[in-house]
Design a protein that fits this description.
Blueprint: H1 2-9, H2 21-35, H3 39-51
Helix pairs in contact: 2-3
Length: about 55
């Protein structure tokens, strides 16, 4: 693909990870918690997502 070629020319490697349905649901839950101002729960879920390498 064009993006991959351009990154290769620049000497860069894309670290792209496909999201599972569970990952997508977790990210949506994290966003909802933030909107609801449930920050402690959102922070904990963000920590879990970071450990998975999603953030």
């Amino acid at each position: 693909n064009a993006l991959g070629y351009m990154l290769d020319v620049l000497g860069l490697k894309a670290n792209v990870k496909r999201l599972t349905e569970d990952d997508v649901q977790s990210i949506r839950k994290w966003e909802a918690l933030r909107k609801e101002k449930r920050y402690a729960e959102a922070d904990e879920l963000r920590r879990i997502l970071q450990e998975k390498g999603l953030f």
